[in-house]
Amino acid sequence: MSINTNKIGIYLNTKYIIMKLRLLLSFMLLGLFVFPVKAQNATTTSTSNDPAVQLISDDRVTILRGDTPGQTVVLSNAASNRRKYFGCPDSIPSLCAPVKDAPPIEAETRPIKNPDPVIAPVKKDPFFLPNPVFFRINKYVIDASEWSKIELAVNYLNEHPGSTVVVTGYADKKTGTAKINMKLSEQRSNEVAKALETKYGIAKNRISVNWKGDGLQPFQLENDKNRAVLFLINP
């Protein structure tokens, strides 16, 4: 059986070319794998005194000063890629920058205003109105001539709303007994107090009623005038 030598030569040449293509493809694939690894592990030494960042392949971050003895600041391509896509800087500004002194705080002083003086009210002493209400002997009914004297007391009380009045009745010592005169002086003072409240509208809590009978004579020299009611004003 005869062998075609031309066909054998073509077959061998084809097989040789295929082997060379496979070998070339293997080198290309190996180059694609090795080059990124070398590029990623490429190192640069920084001589800056500022702190720098070392980004390690497992994403840990180590902060070193550039002049730390025995240490090398490593900036990998991974750090460059992070800076490119995420805006991460290669270095962090100095963490040991001097702190500026705060401006001094000036205390604000305000003048002390003296408080207004407190003026204590002047307390006036009680006093008698000069016009008593007089009565006839053994009577406690108010005569028409005596109403004007009651009105003088009413005017003062209205003009001084903070004042009060004590209505005190008396009897003369030369007529009647002590018991009768005590009762008569009580009736006289109650009659005048009733007129102040019911006729002139003076509040009841501003009126006090008192009586002395014939035990006290306000008019020592004129007996008839002791048949009277006097107004004691408390300002």
Secondary structure: elements and pairs:
Elements: H1 5-41, E1 51-55, E2 61-65, H2 77-86, E3 127-128, E4 133-134, H3 147-159, E5 164-169, H4 178-199, E6 207-211, E7 228-234
Parallel strand pairs: 5-6
Antiparallel strand pairs: 1-2, 3-7, 4-7, 5-7
Short characterization:
The protein is an alpha+beta fold and 235 residues long. The protein has four helices and seven strands, in the order H-E-E-H-E-E-H-E-H-E-E. Helix content is 35%, strand content 14%.
Structural write-up:
It contains 4 helices and 7 strands. With 235 residues, it is α+β, with helices and mostly antiparallel strands. Strands 3, 4, 5, 6 and 7 form a 5-stranded mixed beta sheet that branches. Strands 1-2 form a two-stranded antiparallel sheet.
CATH superfamily of the domain at 127-234: OmpA-like domain
- The share of residues in helices is 25-40%
Beta-strand percentage?
5-15%
Helix count, per DSSP? 4
> What distance separates the N and C termini?
163 Å
**Structural class of the helices, strands and pairings?**
alpha+beta
- Indicate the overall shape: rod-shaped
Radius of gyration: 63 Å
CATH arch. level architecture of the domain at 127-234 = 2-Layer Sandwich
- Low-pLDDT ranges: 42-57, 82-86
CATH hierarchy, class of the domain at 127-234:
Alpha Beta
Q: Tell me about the biggest sheet?
A: 5 strands, mixed
Please provide the count of β strands.
Answer: 7
What value does the average pLDDT take? 79
Order of helices and strands: HEEHEEHEHEE
CATH topology of the domain at 127-234: 60s Ribosomal Protein L30, Chain: A
Domain OmpA-like: 122-235
Protein name: OmpA-like domain-containing protein
InterPro entries: Bact_OuterMem_StrucFunc (IPR050330), OmpA-like (IPR006665), OmpA-like_sf (IPR036737)
Organism: Dysgonomonas mossii DSM 22836
